[in-house]
Amino acid sequence: MHEIADPIACINCPLQDCPGLRPLEEHQLAFMQGFKEGEVALARGELLISEGQSHQQLYTLLGGVLIRWRSLDDGRRQIVNFMFPGDLVGLQSAFDEPAAHAVEALVDARLCRFSRGRFTDLIASHPGLGYDITWLAAQEETALEGHIVSLGQRSARERVAYLAVWLIDRARATCLADDGNRVGLPITQVQIADMLGLSLVHTNRTLRQLLREGLVEWKSREIRIPDLDHTAEFAQYDRGAARARPFI
Predict the structure, then answer these.
(1) pLDDT greater at residue 178 or residue 156
(2) Is 3 exposed, middle or buried (0-12, 13-18, 19+ CB in 10 A)?
(3) In whole angstroms, how large is the CA radius of gyration of the chain?
(4) If we measure between CA atoms, which residue out of 112, 111, 134 comes closest to residue 123?
(5) Which residues are within 8 A (CB) of 35 and not within 5 positions of it... i.e. 6 or more apart?
(6) CA 212 to CA 29: how far, in whole Å?
(7) Cα of 102 vs its chain's centroid, Å
(8) Phi-psi region of 90 (alpha: psi -120 to 50; beta: other; left: phi over 0)
(9) pLDDT for residue 223 is more than 70
(10) Which of 53, 124, 174, 189 is the most core-located residue (most Cβ within 10 A)?
(11) Contact 200, 190 (CB under 8 A)
(12) Could you cite one Gene Ontology molecular function of this protein (predicted)?
């Protein structure tokens, strides 16, 4: 991870133009320019947060995709979630405790950096932004509920299909994919298995079956779904109209 020498001015924030994100108002942009402490860049595979690490920063993901995961003492790993542009990173653990999870760059990523110590200043000065942060936390919990239901109740085929539709929907909303039915993300079969609680053999077999059925085409660097609505129905994934997500 390294500090970016020429950070983007908040008024020129690329997230302002993403269709699935709610743009900040002019006075909010002015406040965030003073609240923001800088920007950092991560290379693919690099850690932003390590398990057990105490950290004093919060981040907003400007570009790229991150994965949040926890590991067991024997090295087994559970991917908890994928994080997309506009997501707030670092609020998932208690402010006064070390992180219980790690955050890793799935692809090269760029993030705005804020101080945790000034978090109360943001809430006091702009209660609307404080509400937005609470809403983001609630939305992440809703996403986690969907993934937990997959682990407990969906079949292997349904789990993979659900994850594929969810990833494409999130990518389209955050300027990482166009309005089509594909997204370029280098998600490996090992990472799919770590997310969905499947063995690597079972993951490979499931991907081949979904390909034969015309539901999901999951390649090493691309996910394509021939018919998003049909695959969403198969996975019991609700693609109803979602409100634009706030960000800070």
Answers:
(1) 156
(2) exposed
(3) 18
(4) 134
(5) 114, 118, 121, 122
(6) 48
(7) 13
(8) left
(9) yes
(10) 174
(11) yes
(12) DNA-binding transcription factor activity
Three-class secondary structure of residue 70 per DSSP:
strand
Q: Report which of 115, 106, 54 is spatially closest to residue 83, judged by C-alpha positions.
A: 106
CA dihedral (195, 200, 203, 208) positive or negative:
positive
- Report the pLDDT value the prediction gives residue 95, as an integer from 0 to 100: 60
Taking only the tens place, the pLDDT of each residue in 39-78 is 999 999 999 999 888 878 889 999 999 999 999 999 999 9
* Separation CA 187–CA 207 (nearest Å): 13
Per-residue model confidence as pLDDT tens digits over 133-160 = 888 888 888 888 999 999 999 999 999 9
Domains and CATH numbers, the chain: 2-128 (2.60.120.10), 146-235 (2.60.120.10)
Residue with structure tokens 């302002």?
A: 16
Strand extents, DSSP E, 94-151: 102-105, 109-115
Instruction: Name the β-bridge partners of 49.
Output: 103
Cα–Cα distance between 209 and 176 in angstroms, integer? 27
pLDDT at 242: 72
- What gap in Å lies between CA 90 and CA 57, rounded to an integer? 7
Checking phi first, is residue 246 left (phi over 0); if not, alpha (psi -120 to 50) or beta?
beta
How far apart CA 6 and CA 83 sit, in angstroms, is 24
β-partners of residue 42 are 109
> Helices 156-173 & 200-212, crossing angle to 10 degrees?
80
Please check whether residue 103 is in contact with residue 89, taking contact to mean a CB–CB distance below 8 angstroms. Answer: yes
Among 217, 148, 223, CA closest to 184: 223
Maximum CA extent, the chain: 55
